[in-house]
Amino acid sequence: MSTNITSMTTPPPSETRSKGRTLAYLAGIPADKVKGIGAVSMKKLSAQGVSSVADLLLTVPRRYLDRSQLFDLQAAPLGKDVTVGGVVTSFSKRRISRGRTMVEARVSDGTSSVRCVWFNPYMKLVEGEEVALSGSIETFKGSLQMKSPDVDRLDRERLAVTGRVLPVYPGLGGLGPFKVREAVDNAVGRSIPIEDIVPTAVLDRFALVDRTTSISRIHLPDSLEDVEPARRRLIFDEFLRIQMALKVRAHDEFESQIGVQNSVKGELFQRFMDSLSHRLTGAQLRVLEEILQDMEAQTPMHRLLQGEVGSGKTVVVVLALLTSVESGHQGAFMAPTEVLAFQHYLGTELALVDAGMAPTIEDVGAGGTTSLFAEEPLSTRPVRIGLFTGSRVTTNFVSGDVSRTQGLVWLADGTIDIAFGTQALIQEDVDFHSLGIAVVDEQHRFGVEQRVVMRDKNQGEGVPDLLLMTATPIPRTLAMTLYGDLKMSVIDEMPPGRSPTTTLAISETADDEIDASIQEVVAEGRQVFVVCPLVEDSEKIDARSAVTEFARITSSLRGVRCELLHGQMHSDEKSDVMSRFRAGDIDLLVCTTVIEVGIDVPNATLMVIRTADRFGLSQLHQLRGRVGRGEFGGVCLLSSDPTTPDGERRIEAMVRSTDGFELSEIDLEIRGQGTVFGGSQSGAADLRLGDILRDRDLLDVAHTVAVAAVQDDPHGPFVTEVMHEVSALLGESAQWLTRS
Ligand code: ADP
Ligand code: MG
Q: Containing H/E element for 218?
């Protein structure tokens, strides 16, 4: 960021700006103040979330008709997407076979006429009304026909007065497109000029048009070329509101706070480093540096660590936890499930043993007899860890489990250096002697609130560092929108010596090929997963079920020790099957997605996924991650005959790429951002026009601008005005963004 950003928040001379009312102000004026909107229309509009003048201004045309591009029927090319205009001369509806309704209309433009058919019972046109039809024209029995064309109703009055480009509005909650257009027109007329809250220097630098221009041209473009710059500005504004809110929150909650003091790369850290049997990868080292820099800084860390399963996040995190311990603080590591919490605990316990840093069991004794506050030289100091879940509390310095009460005492008096656990770690009765760092695994399953609770668990001085981690790759632009208040670290490199899994697509009918692969792998003493989308056959869904596949495999592959595993089984049964599989007493598991997370069997080298096009892309990637975890490499067979283009794309992407980030972007592209945000806790509320993938350049610009503005002056006029706009336009749905 260069110096001219510093001047951004100084209001520019008034003559360079279009003075007028701000959007935030217009958001406070009810829509029924606009001519043409009475109580009834107002009710319909509010039901659609359009209740203020600002909402009307931001109700943009769903498309534009360029009248110079309108074809005469007689001259329109056949078989191409075209738009024609005309008058409805006849309209009828009739029932056809299987309860379907066919709607038929004839539209004439003076040069010729076209017969239109739709199979949509709600389609309705009125004789004499003027319409534009978009679609492909063909000939049928010697005359022109269009099948299910898009229809835009036009009105003559409007046709007569407007220029070459006609905006076409959506209908809104029972208000027709004309009525919406009229309301928007009146709103624009009353509101312009609109004061621009974004400094001119920023607009100039990023080639953005001003607000008055964008609002007037999106609604009344002189030509189609006017539309794009207007849209870009509106999209930038959407992204800016979200980014600014996230940056302001980050500033209030973290960057303006005093963190706990840490000294990095001390003796404990070094002892653990030296004990590692492998060298850290370049990515691990880079991310470790980023984390240590945060820990050393005066402000508390607030960082998201991303890296796929097996990329080596745990080592990095343990080094961060040890840094906190040797600075005289404690660490907390919270996982979403008991199983995962236990895995992290166990992994760390073993690593400490390997490093010669584990306490002896006599160290403290069940009653805590050793003086805890005796100075322990770092060169010999052991590291005491504990596990806290709903069902048990255990430590690495007392044999067996202890009571929760005892565990809590040891947390509060500082006996336990690092606590692992589930949500049980953020219950009200939990206090730390001096919590220096909180690590939260799979953070997308925790809400903002839990993050804050975790942060507030400290009796000592300062706000603890917060490190969130996730093994689910999140596309960069999505992460920026959902977690834009966090700094990002990505481990984008796998430790050496792992051969990547080979993925092949085969037909759903290739049972013989699948069986041959299974036999080959089992003969080598390796194990197999066969994953199915369903537990049992279903009449509605055409997909291979686990029960059917299990029956098939047990009869065709008699020598293979095969078991069934799915979510409907009793949990004792499930864990029994799993532990036998882990022990190598079972060759093949036919299962559902129950194996998606946390199952680590390095001897499993083949994964077969049946009816694979039924699974989402990130799910397929997670599933595939279950094989190829050892030294033997892995093979993934995707059996399917995709019935949709999206299904085909998913399979094709899986075969081509093993890069989780690339796959997550393709997944986002296929599914669209709406489904990804989900829930109310999301920025989607303000993304009407913006698309985080398509408009990623504008998202980057908005991010840059917001960062610079908050850094420059978090309470300056620019930041303040954008934040006004956030609460005025987003209201309730902005709470997740603005809560501090
Ligand atoms: P993650 O937590 O990201 O899933 P882990 O930290 O559990 O990954 O690492 C997975 C495996 O790779 C572990 O067995 C770990 O010991 C090993 N490992 C981690 N870093 C390296 C490295 N730099 N070189 C070799 N092996 C590594
Ligand atoms: Mg710090």
A: helix 211-219
